[in-house]
Amino acid sequence: MKRVLVLNNNEEDLRTLEQTLRASSFDVRTTWSGREALELLTSEEFDALVVDDYLPDMHVDSFLAMVAKLPVRPIILVMTPEPNLKDTKRFENLKVTKVVDKRLLHSMPQSIGLLLERECDAAPALESAVSTPAAIRTNSHSSGRKS
């Protein structure tokens, strides 16, 4: 079962995302706090991180910069009210996988599923480029996912 951490300050959106993701067989953890999310990301393994573009306890860019420095990183989706090219470029520089429209919460399981599938399809190509078993283990751990 794929694990998703949802970070959103809007209680209604948080509940909707949690229910929608659970209904699609994701294991879901939720929080409204960027600081708590950082603690969870360093103590538990997640396949995906869904982040609202507004966090009450820290600026989202600062949060994402800290996540980018973690040794293990999940795919990252940032929710904005109206995704645009400027936001996409800004978040791309912070290692965000995809910027999504926060008005389309019910499509989040499909978005996450497709991104995880795409990442799994790319993993064998990465591993075949590495020549030693020790390097493969190191490479697979750096992606944040188990093989």
Round the Cα radius of gyration to an integer and report it. Answer: 15 Å
The chain-level structural class is alpha/beta
| C-alpha termini separation | 13 Å
Q: Residue-averaged pLDDT, rounded?
A: 84
What's the count of strands?
Answer: 5
Low-pLDDT regions: 123-147
Our count of helices gives 6
Neighbour order of strands in the largest sheet: 2-1-3-4-5
State the helicity in percent bands. Answer: 40-55%
Largest sheet: 5 strands, parallel
The 3D shape can be described as globular
Q: What fraction of the residues are assigned to beta strands by DSSP?
A: 15-25%
Q: How would you spell out the order of helices and strands? A: EHEHEHEHEHH
Short note summarizing the structure:
The protein is α/β, with parallel strands linked by helices and 147 residues long. Helix content is 48%, strand content 17%. The chain has a 5-stranded parallel β-sheet, sandwiched between helices.
